[in-house]
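Recall that a protein's primary structure is simply its ordered list of amino acids. Everything else, from secondary elements to tertiary packing, is in principle encoded there. The following example makes that idea concrete.
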Amino acid sequence: MRACRCVYHGWKFDRSGRLRGYAFGTAGTSLQAKVRLTAYPTAERGGVVWAYMGPKELMPPEPDYEWTRAPAKYRFVSKTFEHCNWLQALEGGLDTAHFVLRA
């Protein structure tokens, strides 16, 4: 079972959010039984990590967009800083006239 560790405190949590170990104290203590994180289901598709943070009974299927199935050599990710309203940046980014095609 895969786990993650807090780099600051050294606490280790499993995928369900249960505390599995920590830098001080002894395993199996009442602290270990009480401490939990909220864990969310994730999926990796197309180089993006998708997380579902809603109610379990309403969870949709994992994302399956065409671009997530394309080989990595056909995907390109960039990062820009735009000094404008976030909605203007979103609208401009969705306009296909702004895409640069690479041969």
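The first strand starts at residue 3 and ends at 5. The CA atoms of residues 21 and 78 lie 38 Å apart.
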